[in-house]
Amino acid sequence: MSPIDHTLAANQPAGDWTLLDERRDFLVVGKPERLLTVPGIGPEKQDCLITRVQTEFPEARIVHRLDWDTSGLLVLARNARAHAFLSKAFADRRVDKTYVALIDAPLEPREGLIDLPIGKDMERRPRYRIDPERGRPSQTRYRIAATEAAGVRVILEPITGRSHQLRVHLLARGRPIQGDSLYHPEAARHERLMLHATRLAFPDPQHPDAPKVAFELDAPF
Measured between alpha carbons, how far is 26 from 17 in angstroms, rounded to an integer? Predict the structure, then answer.
């Protein structure tokens, strides 16, 4: 089955973003699926999260991203100092990120670490692949949370932050994420990519030595 044409799919209406928290230095927002985080190339890819947020908060700045078809939590900086602080926190791996996904069958063992290097798949762009020779080190912790009628719910905690990391790591274990138009052979059975950023914890730029602030947003599936 052919993957979804992202040029056409990007024209489909996306749900709107939600504001979870507003503070002096940052915003925490929820991004819907099928919405770019930042503008893409071409007029059909100018509608995106940051453009929408900036209509209400013109000072908002992107710190990190979610894939077009992934929903969930993002933190946005509100000034240059906070942007530098939060960007360094991500680079230093001081940010805790938790995702939930649906897969077709359980992983074995039911809890563990996937440690496989990821690189671009130059012959099948925009895909990525496991590349032992030129790939960048990539690690994901996982655990099976529940078996449901719709599939198996798995909790994912990326240690590194590579493009498509969770999607490629689960594919490498024979368990592509449901609805994944790039990596699941039966993606069309699902209305969306079943991947959601459900929890985000990071140091507060205003109180860097205090415990991390944490936010949660339930998956819509």
Answer: 16
CB atoms within 10 A of CB 112: 13
Residue 94 burial (10 A CB sphere; 0-12, 13-18, 19+): middle
Separation of alpha carbons 197 and 67, rounded Å? 10
Give residue limits of the domains in the chain: 6-216
Mind listing the pLDDT tens digit for each residue in 80-97?
999 999 999 999 999 999
CA 125 to CA 137: how far, in whole Å? 20
Cβ contacts of residue 63 below 8 Å, gap of 6+?
74, 75, 76, 77, 83, 86, 87, 90
Fold designation for 6-216: Pseudouridine synthase (3.30.2350)
Contact 20, 218 (CB under 8 A): no
Which two tokens mark 65?
């991203």
Nearest CA among 197, 221, 201, 203 for reference residue 31: 197
145-204: per-residue pLDDT in tens? 999 999 999 999 999 999 999 999 999 999 999 999 999 999 999 999 999 999 999 999
Please tell me the distance from the alpha carbon of residue 24 to that of residue 22, in angstroms, as a whole number. 7
Give the tokens for residue 94. Answer: 């001081």
Residues designated catalytic: 67
Pairing between β-strand 71-77 and β-strand 96-103 as defined by DSSP bridges: unpaired
